Amino acid sequence: MVRKPRNAAREAEEGIKDYIRTHRLRTGDLLPSESVLCEELGCSRSSLREAVRTLSSLDVVEVRHGHGTFVSDMSLAPLLRGLILRITLDLENSLENLIHVIDTRQALDLSVAEELAAAYRGKSMDHLHLLVQGMRDQHQAGRSFATEDRRFHATLLSPLENPLVKELSEAFWQVHMQVLPQLKLSMPEDIELTIEAHADMLDALAADDPEAYREVVLRHYAPLRRLLGMGQRDKSA
């Protein structure tokens, strides 16, 4: 029986993933040429090219024209794109879906309190305080402080041993920052409370007080939660 093209492409996709696994290829390693892969996997060039396009969209491989196909860093970018689409296309439940993202990000922040307190015990956090001051300065000048906020959270979590927590936190940060404008939601009027919560997080860590840190995390998200709550009430009115 002749294989359908879609099935052939799917088999080629699985074959490429198996090749990466069995040859223990790592991020940045070059895959064989198209002709070699076709022979290795027993597939046509068209099926292989479709498989590469699919894997490229999933950030498994990266095509560098004129140089070849390389193993990518397999980031969470596809998850990020999928979450943003899910929230913005499902207009009926968009606010609820964004709240679920905030819930998950907050849960991650709460879960690392002890590890962060241990990591920063006796350590200088001057670089983080500078980022907080940068947020204040940008806000007072009427400008977005998103860059400083993103750097703060990435830097704060950098000592964690679990890379997935850091990647997920970054992904959820990007989702909520990109989705808010698409839902026609502006920054909360009391956003200053969120800015100051960043400084209070550092004070809690300096005091080696994980419980205080968790309390500040809840305050950090409070203005955003109030904004989303108002959006829900407006939608139901």
Largest sheet: 2 strands, antiparallel
Q: Let me know the CATH homologous superfamily of the largest domain.
A: GntR ligand-binding domain-like
CATH architecture of the largest domain: Up-down Bundle
Order of helices and strands: HHHEEHHHHHHHH
Shape: elongated
Runs in which pLDDT lies below 50 for 5 or more consecutive residues are none
Number of domains: 2
Share of helix, binned: over 70%
Average pLDDT figure = 89
Structure write-up:
The protein is mainly α. Helices cover 70% and strands 3% of the residues. It folds into two domains: 5-71, Winged helix-like DNA-binding domain superfamily/Winged helix DNA-binding domain (Arc Repressor Mutant, subunit A), CATH 1.10.10.10; 77-228, Four Helix Bundle (Hemerythrin (Met), subunit A) (Up-down Bundle). The model has no long low-confidence stretch (mean pLDDT 89). This is Transcriptional regulator. Keywords: DNA-binding, Transcription, Transcription regulation. Pfam families: FCD, GntR.
SSE layout and pairings?
Blueprint: H1 5-22, H2 34-41, H3 45-57, E1 61-64, E2 68-71, H4 77-89, H5 94-111, H6 113-119, H7 126-140, H8 146-157, H9 163-182, H10 191-206, H11 210-236
Antiparallel strand pairs: 1-2
Helix pairs in contact: 1-3, 4-5, 4-9, 5-9, 5-11, 6-11, 7-8, 7-10, 8-9, 10-11
